[in-house]
Design goal:
It is elongated and about 65 Å long. With 306 residues, it is mainly alpha-helical. α6 crosses α12 and α7 runs antiparallel to α8. The protein has 15 helices and no strands. Helices cover 71% and strands 0% of the residues. Bound molecules: 2-acetamido-2-deoxy-beta-D-glucopyranose (NAG) (2 copies). The site of one 2-acetamido-2-deoxy-beta-D-glucopyranose has 7 residues, from α4. This is Family with sequence similarity 49 member A, like. GO terms for molecular function: small GTPase binding. Keywords: Lipoprotein, Membrane, Signal. It is a lipid-anchor.
Amino acid sequence: PLLISNLFLSSNLLSFFSLLFSAVLEEAHGILAELQSYNGAGQEIREAIQNPGDLALQEKAWNAVCPLVAKLKRFYEFSLRLENALRSLLEALTSPPYAPMQHLEREQALAKQFAEILHFTLSFDELKMTNPAIQNDFSYYRRTISRNRLNNQQLEAENEVNNEMANRMSLFYAEATPMLKTLSNATTKFVSENKTLPIEDTTDCLSTMACVCRVMLETPEYRCRFTNTDTMLFCMRVMVGVIILYDHVHPVGAFAKTSKIDMKGCIKVLKEQPSNSVEGLLNALRYTTRHLNDDSTSKQIRALLQ
Ligand SMILES: *[C@@H]1O[C@H](CO)[C@@H](O)[C@H](O)[C@H]1NC(C)=O
Ligand SMILES: *[C@@H]1O[C@H](CO)[C@@H](O)[C@H](O)[C@H]1NC(C)=O
């Protein structure tokens, strides 16, 4: 238990640090900062739409939107890299001969990276969800492109985001929680591609991490070691992230009686946290899980999430 409790607090990362993950995670911080300061071109777009005959305003809006779309493309491309990083992590955490629990204990650095990826994912989605400018900017961009295509004009920016890329980005940003969806798709794919690997190896790894986070949040001795609210938030996000992945990958999901995740305990401890992010995380459980509305979900759990 001591080892487990050190999982996320441990500062002496074991030698397992691979360059790939540290590069991805380093970039993740930059992406979050960029998204945080993403203000959108709402004003320019409004003016352009209200004055369709004013070419200068059309151009102004277009010039404001193009660099933003380049940013959105970078975010999207990062989601693809994150997907690859997650695959490698899952591969490492489930590789024989060790059981998932042993992997987590032996390779705490890997577990920590997994946690960091989930933390990034939920932070990104939280920011995206509260920023309507993203979809507004992107749909303006697409409308402008298709209008100009009809007029047979070639737009320079089409080289940057061609039609196929725009379609894929559009699907990505249409998701309420695009990064989480990317990860759960990737986890599902990982499990289905590795038929020889028992599904439990992957889901046990996820339920173990959920358990570690829950225990850390519930136990006063651990909680007082959280030097700042960031660590608490980190734990909360990771717990919710692994629950959602588990629910997508496991055949009966996280809410069933047979689930290896103590959902009642997780939801209760989440609700007790003094943080502005609680509601967003509860919403992630409500709206991005697959099995919450199954008959097998107990009334108690439903009531807790109501
Ligand atoms: C996840 O997979 C579904 C089904 O294959 C697909 O429609 C959706 O676009 C994917 N979402 C992301 C964000 O990859
Ligand atoms: C999972 O599948 C991938 C690709 O098919 C393969 O490279 C990898 O070794 C498999 N991993 C395990 C643990 O079976």
